[in-house]
Amino acid sequence: MLKAADPAAKLTTAPDETIDGKPQSVIKLRSPFGVDVALYLDKKTKLLTRMAFTEGGGANTDDFGDYKDVGGIKFAHKRNSQAADGRSTKLDLKSVEIDPKYDQKMFDKPPAP
Question: Contact 24/49 with Cβ under 8 angstroms?
Answer without folding.
Answer: yes
